[in-house]
Amino acid sequence: MAETLDSITKDVAAREERLITLRRAFHQRPELSFEERETAAEIARVLREAGWEAREGVGGTGVVGLLRGEAPGEGPGRTLLVRADIDALPLQEESDHPWRSRRDGVMHACGHDGHIAIGLILAELLAARRGEFHGTVKLAFQPAEERIGGALAMLADGVMRDPDVDATLGLHLWTPVPVGQVSVAAGPVFSSADEVFLRVRGRGGHGAMPHLAVDPVVVAAQIVVALQTLVAREISPFHPAVVSFGLVRGGGAFNVIADAVELRGTLRAYSQADRESLRRRVGEVARGVAEAMRAHVGYEILGGCPACVNDAGMAELVRRAAVATVGEANVPGGDQRQAASDDMAYLLEQAPGCYFFVGAGDAARGIDAPHHSPRFDIAEESLAVGLETLARATLDYLRP
Length: 400
Ligand SMILES: [Zn+2]
Ligand SMILES: [Zn+2]
Description:
CATH superfamily of the largest domain: Zn peptidases
Number of strands: 15
CATH architecture of the largest domain: 3-Layer(aba) Sandwich
Mean pLDDT: 96
Helix content: 25-40%
Radius of gyration: 24 Å
Largest sheet: 7 strands, mixed
Structural class: alpha+beta
Shape: elongated
Distance between the termini: 10 Å
Bound molecules: zinc ion
Strand order of the largest sheet: 1-2-4-3-5-15-6
Low-confidence stretches: none
């Protein structure tokens, strides 16, 4: 077995050039959430060429690849789902790379181009090692992660069934982590995210005669401040959480008291209990404050995504694979939580899994723009690290 694993490094090195070429090709042809038609067609083509079964149109523009191992074993063996998200963002790329986006206003600014390339080369690598594993690998190329919708669409289309999935794996290339490192942890790694909408209704009037009006601007301001106390006073100091309002809209003139004010914000937490508490308490506190000030408030949760919570056993599987790939010193332990969210969370709810981060930043080379920035870039050495870690974890999980 050790011999097999050591040869994986060579296998990955031999495929690195193709891995980078493929990533650059996808980078040049980005497509927005649920519009990934060319991307999906190309994914299906490469999968079939590698000897995989490819199912298209799963969850809209998603593609599912299937490969059964040929190592002898009892029964059909286990099924591992490996997820790669494939969508790009509505951004105008600012880059001098010859492989920069060829599409105006659309850009792979989160690294999903790399995720596609890693998934496809993993498919080729596993096809060549088909005789070394028992069970099934299901590669889920997921649309619309950025809009949080693709994972649910794939679930609705049965991505976890036929064959039933026993465990899940996924990675994100991550520039806040230096290239050469792999960040993996049990428990929560990405926060939940809920978009909330509040409409504060008062009674408009003359700015000089506030006593004849009910001023929703003052009420909204009180609500925003009061809601900050949810994190400060109701969530454990050992549990990070966030309440942020990014949009406040109301009024039309400096001397007129508005009729209504709209607030839109986001709630983040790392445990289901904290998430539920925030979702409920935002409405209760807002209503209480509004009532005390003679106003009314409407409260809606517009959409959300749970936290990504890793299974301890699957995290250990990935940690072993990462250590074999980059060495113990490059797999930092401890708290590896990131303040973002990802709909991989829904897949992790269905089967025990691990979502991990592959370092892709390199400040010395100026590769340090944040994800979703028009200057976003990855250190491409990260691709081989991600591929090798995933390949090792997959073969380990389906070891005969
Ligand atoms: Zn993103
Ligand atoms: Zn992303």
